[in-house]
Amino acid sequence: MHELTVSPWASLAYLVAGVCFILALRGLSSPASSQRGNRFGIIGMTIAVVTTLVTHVPLRSEAWPPGNPHDWMIDWTTVVEILAAIGVGAAIGLVTARRIAMTAMPQLVAAFHSLVGLAAVLVGVAAYLNPQAFGISDLVIPLIGQPFAVIHPVSRIELGLGVAIGAITFSGSVIAFLKLNGNMGGKPIMLPGRHVINLALLAAILGLIAYFVTDQSAWIFWTVVILSFVIGFLLIIPIGGADMPVVVSMLNSYSGWAAAAMGFTLHNSAMIITGALVGSSGAILSYIMCRAMNRSFISVIAGGFGQSSDAGGPAAVSDRPWKRGSAEDAAFLMSQAEQVIIVPGYGMAVAQAQHVLREMGDKLKAEGVRVKYAIHPVAGRMPGHMNVLLAEANVPYDDVFELEDINSEFAQTDVAFVIGANDVTNPAAKTDKTSPIYGMPVLDVKKAKTVLFIKRSMGGVGYAGVDNELFYRDNTMMLLADAKKMVEDIVKALD
Amino acid sequence: MDFIAILSIFVLACFVGYFVVWAVTPALHTPLMAVTNAISSVIIVGALIAAAAAGIGAGSGVAKALGLLAVVLASINIFGGFAVTARMLAMYKKKERPVAPAASK
Q: Membrane-crossing residues (chain B) (predicted)?
């Protein structure tokens, strides 16, 4: 039975909201239509919120027991509280969105995911404590004692899954945030027997949710919540910095599934459609990221990548001779070139070098050099990270190319300019079967006539912990300095 | 709505999501994450219901407080998510063709 009869108009409005969210994602198929897409998203959210506010006006009754419908009146205190809650959230959200540096976008997204997860848990707990309000229970009035609500069995599964996924999203995102924000080392932290622990926890959570169907006791519900927080924490702890793009996408996916599970509980089509959209979006992004690293999703989740440097290329390689260049050499080589391809990586984001890099590109263009940017899918700490930074620096998006579109061009390129990228250019991925990154699609920078490689020092290795054979090639010139400083010097030398 | 009707919406929406997301250009993957994050905060619907409910039983007061807290969290996400997406999308600019007439040497 459904005590909480949703009016057909409300259902229709939620459906419209869901369609708006589909159009919001559809708009992102090209930068030209993307802003319209975002507006569709805002319209959809407004429809969903207003519909809920109108159909769930807070009521109170002076009379007790509240039998007569005429006893109910609008509870203005609650109305004000709700509007204040929205206002507080809006203020925090808008200020954060305005102030955040573009380089900090991965942390921000992780932080936002944690909020969705926590909100899902809170809604789930609220639904468990007051199931009548959500229309997911039958009221049983015993002959003696207080009336109590019996939650529908299907709703119990949905509720259990919803809070579990929400809690995993929350604690996982908090760890991802701490790692991305540098509060916690990027190195994976390995617990002994963690796979056994995680599988046992997962089995316990699923078992308890199944048991919850037969017994709606509080201890079961709370144990599910607590175990889910713990497993979210344990799942992300062993994953290293280089795998963060996958983690962020995966948590994005989880936040969607959490919303969908809550949508099932509330029989709300807007939440279900959105949850499915976001869930598949995150899953597809995770897949794209894994493919770009030639790693299976399972191996990423299992964690531990990039912790040891003894795998693959032996340390002895570092003794090989290499060539060092100066800013003036780099400026001369590039100004004489016909085409320069710039390969940015996470190091560019860390050094905040995107603006001065664009300045360098403009100077080269003024000298008649063709300048292009080549982006590897996993460059940076989240999908599309480099694209956003280049866009921030006013690099036109039709100068920016994806791996598959530009890789064949390196052979006809005079200079490949690698700034802050390492593993994504490593030729060992194609040649060295023992390398941990073997099989990963890489940018063919070595085919360019000259490779300029900005690196802070010769000591460090990339996140995969492997040496890059590129450094020791005859056509490579190493520019050892802070990325921003080096590009600034090149700009000066170009004058 | 019965369970099967809801499940149908869910399954079809998964397929829609699959095709729509593959059509998103890789250059916009970061804004995609920001906007999906904003729309997944549609969970605010549940938070509003919990906050507005005058329930029976001891749990309803706590449920209301949790609902209000969830409204705050979801609002941060909604406003922050859409605003940061708008900020990012405004940066994606096309090349101004007339300014740089293809000068090859």
A: 6-25, 37-59, 65-90
